[in-house]
Amino acid sequence: MAAAAVQGGVKNLEERIKIPDLKEALTEIFSEYGNVIGLVAKKNLKAKGQAFVVFDHVEAAERAIKEVQGFELFDKPMLLDYAKTKSDATVQREGTEEDYESHKRRRLAEKERKQAHQAAEEQKKLKRPAAGTAPDAAATRPAKASRGAGLKSSNPGAGAVVPEEYLPPNKILFVQNLPEDYDVDGLTAIFGRFEGFREVRLVPGRKGIAFVEYEAEAGAISAKESTSGMGLGAESKPIKVVYQRQ
Questions:
Q1: Which of 155, 191, 4 has its CA nearest to residue 84?
Q2: Dist CA 13 CA 72 (whole Å)
Q3: According to the model, what pLDDT value does residue 153 have?
């Protein structure tokens, strides 16, 4: 059965309306044109003022776009367009469970890459002096030569340190806050069930941390998504799982 999505789809929505009220109004409107199998509206800053609607037939989406285009909702005309990418609901309906899991991993990886890029850009802005600002006197004062002085970093982005929560996906995970009694076997039992698992590496002399390596990003993405915040040990202390800093 064919499926289509009206994504990004519904824009120019009133941002002050509460999400539950917005979703209820949109569902009532679009249900007139066909079976709505998915509707997403978020309150985060980048997604404000837009929603994603998924129909189970292309014809329903076509009618909705044609007839609802410019329709005023909460005193603002809605702007509609077709989806640029397939929604979760569409992939789940059309494909296999494996297709759906692969789609979710790609979407999550892309989201984390964007977050990492945005975090790096914010760090650059914070380090960039405001226009017209005089340099700090201490900064212009001659300093004593220190160890390594005169050496230049080979990394042009070294000044912008991305918080570890927003590091881009790679195939190695850095696991923190582990109970002291968890060894390689215990961690392998947790992380070894994900695709492409290679090994768990503990750090000699350092308790509570480990590295988990996979053959490809896909396995690391699935593992991070499933284990981050998992409670371990007698106190069910949540572990922290991030990507290794490259």
A1: 4
A2: 9
A3: 41
229 and 239 Cβ atoms separated by less than 8 Å: yes
Place of tokens 């329709």: 71
Contacts of 143 (CB under 8 A, 6+ apart): none
Q: Which pLDDT score is estimated for 214?
A: 95
CB-based contact 30:53 (threshold 8 Å): yes
Name the residue type at position 200. Answer: V
Measured distance CA(16)–CA(210) in Å, rounded: 44
Instruction: Please name the amino acid found at residue 212.
Output: V
- Kindly report the pTM of this predicted structure: 0.45
Residue identified by tokens 């909705």 is: 64
DSSP state of 164: G
Alpha-carbon gap, residue 209 to 245, rounded angstroms = 14
Which residues, in sequence order, are CB contacts of 184 under 8 Å at separation 6+?
Answer: 200, 202
Comparing CA positions, the residue from 69, 76, 70 lying closest to residue 48 is 76
